């Protein structure tokens, strides 16, 4: 392991895996937040889209990292990335120029067996994902509830509503949260007048994703339902891996100096 690269050799085959950093088991939620998520808040206010994924085996702390053990208080050391992001976002918005208007919205969905469910509508309405016709390479979730929020407490209440919905369904169909992916989105729209008097609107989103447990890959289990679940998790995580690899390669390619 050298220069932020892990080299795995198996016979003649060598694979290299790059990484930006590693946190030890003693690392606090605050340290993880400050190092990984905090820099993204300014980016979303500036109109960029950013994503944070929690990936790993069941029981390794994905949900703990993203949400924490308690969401009724921001004082607890266990408070996760989602409540910390919301709190930080409202603090930053309070600090920026008062001439800039802003609106913050949240949505919370889960993807289970290729089906997308809205966790904020009560009863978990099924919604559809499709390619965004106005923004090439981007997707829209049609009909998803986007709740406007004014305080971090409201964000945490909605988080609780969504988690309760996720819990109810998982009990009903005898599955666990680890078999679905959940995506909590914080959207911020800012509006300001330029010196020329034009209205400048920026829309930024922070996607906070708690992925299904990766150990489901290859374990089809005995029932047809488990086999379908494992197949879908396998397919979605593999596709995600390919997309991230392609994006990283594209970034490297674009950063390479080109001949004049
Ligand atoms: N850093 C940590 N400090 C204290 N407790 C933790 C930590 N990480 C995880 N835990 C505890 O370990 C247990 C399992 O964690 P968690 O549910 O977050 O795992 P997970 O990866 O999301 O699992 P699943 O894939 O099943 O959803 C929970 O009781 C959680 O509170």
Oligomeric form: single chain
The fraction of residues assigned to DSSP E strands is 25-35%
Q: Which hetero compounds are present in the coordinates?
A: adenosine-5'-triphosphate
Give the strand tally. 10
Q: For the record, give the distance between the C-alpha atoms at the N and C termini, rounded to a whole number.
A: 36 Å
CATH structural class:
Alpha Beta
- In CATH, the architecture is 3-Layer(aba) Sandwich
What does the radius of gyration come to?
20 Å
Low-confidence stretches: none
Summed up, the helix count is 5
Mean pLDDT: 85
Main location: cytoplasm
InterPro entries: KIF11-like, Kinesin_motor_CS, Kinesin_motor_dom, Kinesin_motor_dom_sf, P-loop_NTPase
Domain Kinesin motor: 1-260
Protein name: Kinesin-like protein
Topology of this structure?
Blueprint: E1 5-10, E2 13-18, H1 29-45, E3 49-54, H2 62-66, H3 81-95, E4 101-112, E5 115-118, E6 126-131, E7 139-142, E8 147-149, H4 152-172, E9 181-193, E10 199-210, H5 224-255
Parallel strand pairs: 3-10
Antiparallel strand pairs: 1-2, 4-5, 4-8, 4-9, 5-6, 6-7, 9-10
The structure holds adenosine-5'-triphosphate.
The site of adenosine-5'-triphosphate (ATP) has 13 residues, from helix 2.
Compose a concise summary of this entry.
The protein has helices at 29-45, 62-66, 81-95, 152-172, 224-255; strands at residues 5-10, 13-18, 49-54, 101-112, 115-118, 126-131, 139-142, 147-149, 181-193, 199-210. Strand 5 (115-118) and strand 6 (126-131) form a beta hairpin.
Structure explained in plain terms:
The chain is of the alpha+beta class. The chain has one domain (28-240): Kinesin motor domain (Kinesin), CATH 3.40.850. The protein has 5 helices and 10 strands. The protein has helices at residues 29-45, 62-66, 81-95, 152-172, 224-255, and strands at 5-10, 13-18, 49-54, 101-112, 115-118, 126-131, 139-142, 147-149, 181-193, 199-210. Strands 3, 4, 5, 6, 7, 8, 9 and 10 form an 8-stranded mixed beta sheet that branches. Strand 4 (101-112) and strand 5 form a beta hairpin. Helix 1 crosses helix 3 (81-95). It starts with a strand and ends in a 5-residue tail after the last helix. The mean pLDDT is 85. The structure holds adenosine-5'-triphosphate. Residues 56, 58-64, 69, 176-178, 213 line the site of adenosine-5'-triphosphate (ATP). Adenosine-5'-triphosphate binds at residues 56, 58-64, 69, 176-178, 213. Belongs to the TRAFAC class myosin-kinesin ATPase superfamily. Kinesin family. It comes from Tenebrio molitor (Yellow mealworm beetle). Its main location: cytoplasm. Keywords: ATP-binding, Cytoplasm, Cytoskeleton, Microtubule, Motor protein, Nucleotide-binding. It is found in: Cytoplasm, Cytoskeleton.
């Amino acid at each position: 392991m050298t220069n932020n690269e892990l080299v795995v050799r198996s016979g003649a085959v060598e694979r290299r895996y790059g990484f930006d950093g590693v946190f030890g088991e003693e690392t606090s939620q605050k340290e993880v937040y400050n190092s990984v998520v905090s820099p993204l808040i300014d980016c979303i206010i500036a109109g960029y889209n950013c994503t944070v994924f929690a990936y790993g085996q069941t029981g390794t702390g994905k949900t703990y990292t993203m949400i924490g053990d308690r969401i009724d208080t921001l004082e607890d050391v266990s408070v996760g990335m989602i409540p910390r992001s919301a709190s930080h976002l409202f603090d930053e918005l309070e600090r920026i120029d008062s001439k800039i208007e802003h609106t913050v919205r949240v949505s919370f969905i889960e993807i289970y067996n290729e089906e997308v469910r809205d966790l904020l509508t009560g009863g978990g309405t099924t919604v559809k994902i499709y390619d965004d016709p106005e923004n090439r390479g981007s997707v829209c979730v049609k009909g998803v509830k986007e709740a406007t929020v004014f305080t971090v407490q409201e964000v945490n209440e909605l988080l609780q509503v969504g988690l309760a919905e996720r819990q109810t369904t998982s009990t009903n169909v005898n599955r666990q949260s680890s078999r679905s992916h959940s995506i909590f989105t914080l959207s911020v729209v800012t509006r300001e007048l330029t010196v020329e008097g034009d209205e400048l609107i920026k829309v930024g989103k922070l996607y906070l994703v708690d992925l299904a447990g990766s150990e489901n890959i290859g374990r089809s289990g005995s029932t047809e339902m488990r086999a379908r679940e494992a197949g879908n998790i396998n397919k979605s995580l593999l596709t995600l891996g390919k997309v991230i690899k392609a994006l990283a390669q594209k970034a490297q390619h674009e950063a390479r100096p080109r001949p004049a």
